[in-house]
Amino acid sequence: MLNGLANWWDGVELWLAQAWFPVQFVLVMVVVVPLCLLVAWIIDKLVERCARWLGTARDDEGPSGS
To answer: What distance in Å separates the CA atoms of residue 38 and residue 30, rounded to the nearest whole number?
Structure first.
């Protein structure tokens, strides 16, 4: 099964490397950019949950008035 997947990926990679540059650019913009945005959103949510779970290191009262 892994050999089949590796052969398929090699074919896709060869096709993409031989494609005209504007086609490569469009594919990156359509596939990679949304994927990166999704991963960034997931990381943001995970960090937010961890920060909420750990609490804040500062007082929630704000700076003391002098």
So the answer is: 13
